[in-house]
Amino acid sequence: MTDSRDRTGERESALPRRGAARTAKLASLPLGIASRAVGGWGKRLTGQNAEQVNAVLSAKAAEQLFEVLGTLKGGAMKFGQALSVFEAAVPDDLAKPYRDALTKLQSAAPPMSARQTHRVLAEQLGRSWPGRFAHFDDEPAASASIGQVHRATWHDGREVAVKVQYPGADEALRSDLRQLQRFSRLFQAFVPGTDVKPLLSELAERMDEELDYLAEADHQRAFAKAFEGDPAFLIPRVVASAPKVVVTEWATGTPLAQIIAGGDKGTRDLAGRLLAEFHYSSPARVHLLHSDPHPGNFMLAADGRLCVIDFGGVAKLPNGIPRQLGEMTRLALDGHSDELMRLLRENGFVREGSELSPAEVLSYLAPFTEPLATATFHFTRRWMQRQADRLGDTRGPDFRVGRSLNLPPEYLMIHRVTAGSTGILCQLDADIPARGIVERWQPGFAA
Which segments of 66-187 are extended strands (E)? Predict the structure, then answer.
C-alpha cells in the first residue's frame, strides 16, 4: 500500500465543484471559437491562404474543446465521449484535429489526489478498506467522466479494477448538462447530421443511473452471467460494490481506440464484428442494452474476445428489441413503401398532420439499410459522411422529410446506440457481416 499523504503540489480534487467556475469554463467555448473566427477573417484579409487559416482555426477549436470538456470531467466530459463516436461523420478536411481531440476524451483526464481517493474508499468500503486488498496502486490506471480506475490486488490474490467516483460528481453533472444545453447549437457544428439537443436531454435523464455504482454493478453481473463461457466475449465479474465504488476483476487488452488508430485489417474487422454482435445480441440474451458505445469502453483481449469494461449506461429492455423495428427495417430494405408507411404511422414515427408520401419516406430511410443489402458491408467514414451530409442539407428533400418524422421515446436509446455503434464501425473501416447478425438477433427482420 502506498503512502496516503498527498504528493507535493497535488490537487485535493480534480473535479471543479463550484458551479460558477464550471459555467465560466463552458462559456469560454463559444467565446473562444468566435474570437478565433474573427482573427481568421483578419488573416484572410492580409492575404493568407483560406484553407490554411481554416485548418489552424479547426485545430485550435478542437484543442480548446478537449481542454474544457476533458478537464471538467462530469457531464462535460460525458458529452464529449458521446460525441466522439460520431467523429466519422466530420468532413475529411476538418476531421484530424477533432478526431484527435475527441479520441482523447475517451480515456484521458487529470486524476484526483490519493488522499481524496482514500477518503471515498473509507466512506464506501469502511475504514478497514485497506485490509480488503493485498495491494492498492494510488496512481490511477484510467480516468473517465465521473470516476477513475485503480489497479489493485484483492485479498484473495485476484487482480482487480477499483472504480472510484469523484466527490461532487452529481453537482458537476447537473451543472454541466444545464450549461451544455444552452450551447447545443454550437456543438451541432462539430458533428454534422447528429441532433445534439436530444443527446443532451437523454444524458440528463440518465444522470442518476450513471451516478449509481450499485446499479452499474448489478448490470455488469447480469451481463457477466449471460455471456459466461462465451468464446467471443469477456465481461469481468464484479467482486464488490458500493454506491460510489465498484470492484471488478482486472482485464487487459488492446483498447478499441488503439485498434482504430493503427490496427491491421483483420483485427479491425474482428473488433467490428464482435461489437456489432454484442450490440444486437444483448437485448435478447440479457434483456439489457449497453447504451454507452464509445471506444473507451471496449478492448480486444489477447485471445480475440471483445472485453466490455463499463456498464454505467444501460437501458432495460425486458421484451428485447421491439419486433416492429425489425419489420420496418426489412420493409425499407425490400422497398415496400406503402406497408412501411403504414407501420411507421401505427407506431408513432410520423408526426400528426404531416403530408409525407410513402415514396419520400422510403427514399429517406433506404440508405440506412445499405449495410444489410449484402452479406458483408464495408463501413467507412466516407459512407457515414454521406449520410450526415444528406440529413444535414437544409436544401435537400431528406431534411424536410426528417423534420416530419418522429422518434417515439421507447426507441430513442435504441436509435442512439445503433448510430453510435455504427460510428465506431466506420472509424474501424471494417467489413462486417451485418446482415447475418441482424437476421439472427433482430426480431421481425428475418420473418
Answer: 133-136, 142-143, 147-154, 159-165
